[in-house]
């Protein structure tokens, strides 16, 4: 009641004098009163002054006070060309003048068709069919259900389970969580999930055998599982080359390639979850391209629309598609869809984003920028609390440790990652940690001057928090 009166009073006051600080107070109160934020302990969150973003320009976001912040994590790994990009805005405006939404149930629309053609053109070999949805998680649900029903339609009724990898993250719907393996996020839901086989993701830094040992352990676990259980397994789902939410963990070279070969050999489908790694992020259009891997199903989201609108897609091969292609009476139809499947506004902006990829040579650009960043961060390697710097393209994770030689992690309760990210925010850059791993995933459009400033902030905040000192 008191909050309500306060909000009404602040609304009247801000309308009367237009004071930006009163406006902030009003929004902050409303935020506290009505918003429940994702992946957030609201008790913590409500104790601090909330950051409230008002607009974006280039690779910076501006809060309601007009303060600028570098978007150092691409608004959770999705922004590509920056914010408020004229070409992308125009594509949405143009489409808006035609139609904002119409369904793909029983009819098609212009941008959904044109985007499907473009996606097939850039996707790994063999992926020829596009099934749209609206988030990475729904794209994963679709891939899982397609893989399951694929075997059902082919009469292999025993192939009903999935292989996933330790610390995997594939989204937050129940199917996606069932193939997830991050205990902190997923354990509470275990009783309502279907069980999956879990093999280790090759985490070289924390494997006694290093990169070679970690890779061998993964391949051995996969081989053993496939040798004994392939007739019960529908598919393996993998975050190719880089495991994102698990801590920006980079696979040793050749691992993905060998995993794909094993799946092929034992007749188990391969689902590549490229939601985080797709669209140039790793220095190739898709991470699978780095090792010439052609999955049977591929999920894309996040950067698909340049990070503008919620569109995702699941791409399939003819082989998968054909298992559903039958006379209606055979009941092989894929009964799945979402209200906003193939949304024209989203597809139009995705098309405009892909045009910019071509015109601006975005993927080659990422490789050059990646080596610039690698060079800039090299000095951090010797610092006493920097355990490992992991990088693929413009996807960077810095694992902080209490003891460098024993690799002893910081206790989770110290919240070293959260504190470092808060310090970065004070210094003018936004990011969000993964436990003790500091994440740096800048928009692909960031130029060298911007990357220089952002890496300086990153270093400064790490040193401030772990050593109490300054970078300079
Ligand atoms: C973000 C992410 C998802 C989930 O995507 P949403 O759009 O948040 O549902 C799935 N897989 C990976 C690898 C991701 O990084």
TrEMBL record:
Q: Tell me its EC number(s), please.
A: 2.6.1.62
Q: Name one GO biological process term.
A: biotin biosynthetic process
A Pfam family = Aminotran_3
Indicate the enzyme's highest-level EC class: transferase
Residues annotated as binding substrate are: 169, 302, 337, 432
Q: Which PROSITE patterns match?
A: AA_TRANSFER_CLASS_3
Cofactor(s) for this UniProt protein: pyridoxal 5'-phosphate
Q: Where is this site: Participates in the substrate recognition with KAPA and in a stacking interaction with the adenine ring of SAM?
A: 39
Residues with the N6-(pyridoxal phosphate)lysine modification: 302
Q: Which residues bind pyridoxal 5'-phosphate?
A: 136-137, 273, 338-339
List the pathway annotation: Cofactor biosynthesis; biotin biosynthesis; 7,8-diaminononanoate from 8-amino-7-oxononanoate (SAM route): step 1/1
Keyword annotations for this protein?
A: Aminotransferase, Biotin biosynthesis, Cytoplasm, Pyridoxal phosphate, S-adenosyl-L-methionine, Transferase
InterPro entries membership = Aminotrans_3, Aminotrans_3_PPA_site, BioA, PyrdxlP-dep_Trfase, PyrdxlP-dep_Trfase_major, PyrdxlP-dep_Trfase_small
Q: Catalyzes what?
A: (8S)-8-amino-7-oxononanoate + S-adenosyl-L-methionine = S-adenosyl-4-methylsulfanyl-2-oxobutanoate + (7R,8S)-7,8-diammoniononanoate
Q: Tell me, what does this protein do in biology?
A: Catalyzes the transfer of the alpha-amino group from S-adenosyl-L-methionine (SAM) to 7-keto-8-aminopelargonic acid (KAPA) to form 7,8-diaminopelargonic acid (DAPA). It is the only aminotransferase known to utilize SAM as an amino donor.
Instruction: Supply the name of the protein.
Output: Adenosylmethionine-8-amino-7-oxononanoate aminotransferase
Name the species this protein comes from.
Answer: Paenibacillus baekrokdamisoli
Organism placement in taxonomy: Bacteria, Bacillati, Bacillota, Bacilli, Bacillales
């Amino acid at each position: 009641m008191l909050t309500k009166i306060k909000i009404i009073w602040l609304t009247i006051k801000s309308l009367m004098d237009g004071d930006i600080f009163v406006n902030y107070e009003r929004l902050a109160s409303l935020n506290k009163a009505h918003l429940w934020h994702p992946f957030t302990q609201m008790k913590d969150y409500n104790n601090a002054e909330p950051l409230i973003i008002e607009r974006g320009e280039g690779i910076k976001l501006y809060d309601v006070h007009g303060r600028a912040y570098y978007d150092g994590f691409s608004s959770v790994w999705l922004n590509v060309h920056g914010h408020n990009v004229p070409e992308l805005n125009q594509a949405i405006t143009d489409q808006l003048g035609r139609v904002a939404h119409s369904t793909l149930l029983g009819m098609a629309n212009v941008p959904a068709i044109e985007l499907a053609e473009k996606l097939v053109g850039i996707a790994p070999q063999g992926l020829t069919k596009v099934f749209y949805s609206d988030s990475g998680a729904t794209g994963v649900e679709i891939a899982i259900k397609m893989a399951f029903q694929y075997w059902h339609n082919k009469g292999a009724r025993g192939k009903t389970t999935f292989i996933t990898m330790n610390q995997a993250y594939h989204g937050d719907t129940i199917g996606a969580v069932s193939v997830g393996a991050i205990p902190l996020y997923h354990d509470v839901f275990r009783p309502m999930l279907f069980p999956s086989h879990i093999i280790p993701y090759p985490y070289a830094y924390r494997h006694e055998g290093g990169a070679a040992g970690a890779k061998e352990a993964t391949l051995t676990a996969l081989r053993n599982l496939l040798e004994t259980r392939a007739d019960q397994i529908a598919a393996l789902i993998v975050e190719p080359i880089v495991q994102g939410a698990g801590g920006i963990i980079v696979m040793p070279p050749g691992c993905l390639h060998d995993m794909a070969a094993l799946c092929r050999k034992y007749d188990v489908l391969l689902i590549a979850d490229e939601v985080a790694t797709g669209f140039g992020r790793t220095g190739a259009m898709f991470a699978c391209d780095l090792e010439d891997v052609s999955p049977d199903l591929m999920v894309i989201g996040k950067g698909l629309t340049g990070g503008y609108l919620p569109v995702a897609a699941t791409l399939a091969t003819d082989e998968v598609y054909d298992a559903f292609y039958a006379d209606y009476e055979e009941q092989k139809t894929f009964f799945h869809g979402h209200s906003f499947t193939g949304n024209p506004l989203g597809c139009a902006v995705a098309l405009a984003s892909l045009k910019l990829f071509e015109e601006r040579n975005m993927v080659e650009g990422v490789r050059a920028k990646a080596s610039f960043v690698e060079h800039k961060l090299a000095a951090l390697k010797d610092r006493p609390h920097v355990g490992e710097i992991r990088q693929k393209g413009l996807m960077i994770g810095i694992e902080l440790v209490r003891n460098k030689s024993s690799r002893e992690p910081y206790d989770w309760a110290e919240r070293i990652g959260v504190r470092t990210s808060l310090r970065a925010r004070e210094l003018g850059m936004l990011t969000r940690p993964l436990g003790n791993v500091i994440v740096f995933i800048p928009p692909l459009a960031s130029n060298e001057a911007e990357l220089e400033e952002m890496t300086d902030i990153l270093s400064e905040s790490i040193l401030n928090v772990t050593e109490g000192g300054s970078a300079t």
